[in-house]
Amino acid sequence: MKKKLLSEKIRNLADSIGIDTLGFAEAFEFTDYAINQSRRQDPKHSLPDAKTIIVAGIYIGGLSLPAWTSPWYARTSRLYLSEFFLDVVKPLKPIVNFLKNEGYAAIVCDSSTDEGSILPLKLAAIRTGLGWQGKHSLLISKKYGTFLALGGIITTADLEHNTHEEPNRCHKCNKCQQACPMAALDNPYILNRDKCLSNLLQIDGLSKEAQSVMENRVGDCEICQYACPWNKKHLDHPLVTNTTAFFQKKIKDLEKFFYLPNLIELSEKEYREKMGHLNTCIPYYLFQRNVLIAMGKAKKDDDMNIT
Predict the structure, then answer these.
(1) Mean pLDDT of 93-118
(2) Contact 96, 52 (CB under 8 A)
(3) Is residue 73 part of a domain?
(4) Does residue 272 lie within any of the structural domains?
């Protein structure tokens, strides 16, 4: 009874603070995690008496800018604009505080800290029943598609654990693989980070091939997600949530900010002040490189239209 009541209280709290989906699972080792000897492989490396992992998802399907269709506006991604580029952290603090007040230990997965991430969030989300891994390597939810920003908690509280993982519903579909312009998904379910455009926009040495397909993207890429059939309804008609409704009020200001001629004038100090909270990990000089390339493409498009 105590386990059920505690789980219910946490779910009610999560709902009240704008978390759209929540799952609980037993805190045992992720034996299929690809990186051996990582603390993320076993929750007990971070919390020896851990009993439960909690994974929260916030829907970000409505976080896009209509101006992205114009080459003169810098394109990013829903995750980029959500402020949860690394992990959902701040919204989970009330749950952590609640657990601590109940006498349990609880720690949040926060990749932005020196300690780094403590959970493989995608695998944890699958274990808690939030979805399955698609061939683009992303989590897919029946209700939310790939548009969930994820966060996690490890706790000593013994909650009602999910025991049924979602079946893989990708079947023979390979639209995401076909859509990737860099062939980063040649092997289904495995992302080749060395080819992924999202990753290439964050590192030195942007190849001519990547430049030729990036269009007006200056940070992150959603091409495979646009191709995923599980996202079609969210692209056409995003769900109305607290996060979506709040974002709608910011669209005009964001579009003005992401107008390429404005971005090119952004100083490094302004970049840190105005974009630091997004936690994208993209250094100023690389962001400016991407903006310059996007500007060149926009001008070229205009010249072609004139002729």
Answers:
(1) 92
(2) no
(3) yes
(4) yes
Spatial separation of the C-alpha atoms in residues 15 and 21, rounded to whole Å: 8
How many domains in the chain? 1
Concatenated DSSP letters for 204-239?
S---HHHHHH-TTBSS---HHHHH-GGGHHHHHS--
H, E, C per residue of 67-115: HHHCCCECECCHHHHHCCCCCCCHHHHHHHHHHHHCCCCEEECCCCCCC
CB neighbour list of residue 25: distance below 8 Å, 6 or more residues apart: 52, 53, 55, 124, 127, 128, 129, 161, 162
Is 306 domain-assigned? no
Task: Give how far the C-alpha of residue 266 lies from the chain's centroid of Cα atoms, to the nearest Å.
Answer: 25
Kindly report the pTM of this predicted structure. 0.94
List, as one string, the DSSP characters of 131-193: -EE-TTSSEEBTTTBT-EEEEEEEES--------PPPP--TT--HHHHH-TT-TTSSTT---T
For residues 277 and 82, the answer to whether their CB atoms sit within 8 Å is no
Q: Two tokens at 248?
A: 């709608």
**pLDDT reported for residue 279:** 85
235: which 2 tokens? 């692209």
Residue 304 — pLDDT band, cuts 50, 70, 90?
A: low
What average pLDDT is seen over the chain? 94
36 three-class SS: coil
Encoded tokens for 285: 């000089």
Q: Which domain holds residue 9?
A: 1-300
Distances (CA, A) of 163 to 93, 126, 154, 266: 26, 11, 17, 50
- Residue bearing tokens 């604009």: 81
Is the residue at 264 inside a domain?
A: yes
